[in-house]
Design a protein that fits this description.
CATH architecture of the largest domain: Alpha-Beta Barrel
Number of helices: 14
Order of helices and strands: HEHEHEHEHEHEEHEHEHHEEHHHH
Helix content: 40-55%
Strand content: 5-15%
Structural class: alpha/beta
Radius of gyration: 18 Å
Number of domains: 2
Shape: globular
CATH superfamily of the largest domain: Aldolase class I
Bound molecules: NADPH dihydro-nicotinamide-adenine-dinucleotide phosphate
Distance between the termini: 26 Å
Length: 315
């Protein structure tokens, strides 16, 4: 397939694996890129020296394009971008911050820049900043989430109508049917995170992968709205947050409950009770941990099947 997204990144399928803290290192990114999608290293949880090592390993294991995701609120951000420029990473996805801060500098070095947004105001800001494409991420998505709580179904057409640059849909997309729906709404590519958490190559703890596979409808919730809204799995840590929110705890108390390195405790170390597990609503549809390449193939085949099914409708 050829469209603006496959051409922009030089990839076979317009399927992008989301950069996820603690889950997407070089093994996952290179596996997805080798399978014809775009793999992304999630730099938000990596110290600068770790990111450098991860990029080198990714380059050694794939000759295909790959990207690095940098949340713009990362504390050592200059060091991350220094490494990215030095290592000639071809594509950067930025998120959780102002796109005008880094886009021009990265583009001067020939890097393609994509910014993640969750509303029209930021889509326009990203376009003005000169990004090559945007990811519009809806309410169903795992991890940090937009304050407007706009679902993917409502967000994509609004963004499509507001900007003409290449558009990637994210949030609630876990298979080819959802990919097809996103294309019907005006997207030209999809960014998929949660499905790849439960892949062989993801660096998520085995307990997290298994928890994703065992999950039922309603197991995730968008919470901590006074701090940064985040979608996570309901567990004992979440119950503490819920109890505090029920008695109208203030920001400071919530920040204290959250503490430091909760996400690492959960997603990387596998503490199912006290850890934080950032993942999307769609997990309840996943049944098996699979190799990333199989996931990419399956999504693409289901996408093609769904398009054929729609084409066969007698109108
Ligand atoms: P915390 O402040 O609770 O903890 C920081 C974590 O990041 C620690 O586990 C630490 O590892 C690790 N880390 C990596 N590099 C650094 C560094 N240079 N300085 C300090 N800590 C570092 O943050 P979170 O775990 O909630 O988030 C970590 C990062 O991920 C942030 O940059 C945040 O923006 C991003 N994030 C992105 C999300 C998204 O949806 N894109 C969702 C949530 C977070 P150690 O424990 O080994 O010291």
């Amino acid at each position: 397939m050829q469209n603006r997204i496959t051409e922009l990144f030089g990839i076979k399928y317009p399927i992008i694996q989301a950069g996820m803290i603690w889950c997407s290192g070089w093994e996952l990114a290179s596996a997805v890129s080798n399978a014809g999608g775009l793999g992304i290293i999630g730099a938000g949880s990596m110290y600068p020296d770790i990111l450098k090592e991860q990029i080198k390993k990714c380059k050694a294991t794939t000759s295909k394009p790959f990207a690095v995701n940098v949340p713009l609120l990362y504390p050592d951000i200059e060091k991350h971008f220094e490494t990215i420029i030095e290592e000639k990473v071809p594509i950067v996805f930025t998120s959780a911050g102002n796109p005008s801060t880094w886009t021009a500098k990265l583009k001067q070095h020939g890097i393609k820049v994509v910014h993640v947004i969750a509303n029209t105001k930021f889509a326009l800001k990203a376009k003005d900043a000169g990004v090559d494409a945007i990811v519009a991420e809806g309410f169903e998505a795992g991890g940090h989430n937009g304050r407007e709580e706009t679902t993917t179904l409502c967000l994509i057409p609004q963004i499509r109508d507001a900007v003409d640059i290449p558009l990637i849909a994210a949030g609630g997309i876990g298979d080819g049917r959802a990919m097809c729906a996103a294309f019907a709404l005006g997207a030209e590519g999809v960014q998929i995170g949660s499905r790849f958490v439960a892949s062989m190559e993801s660096s998520a703890h085995q307990n997290f992968k298994q928890r994703v596979i065992d999950s039922k409808e309603g197991d995730t919730v968008l919470t901590l709205k006074q701090l940064t809204p985040v979608r996570l799995i309901k567990n004992e840590f979440y119950r503490q947050v819920e109890e505090a929110e029920m008695r109208a705890a203030n920001k400071e108390e919530l920040a204290q409950i959250l503490g430091r390195a909760r996400a690492k405790k959960g997603m990387f170390e596998g503490d199912l009770k006290e850890g934080e597990f950032e993942v999307g609503q769609i997990i309840s549809t996943f049944k098996e941990i699979k190799p990333a390449a199989e996931i990419v193939e399956e999504i693409w085949n289901d996408f093609s099947k769904t398009i054929k099914m729609l084409n066969s409708l007698r109108l």
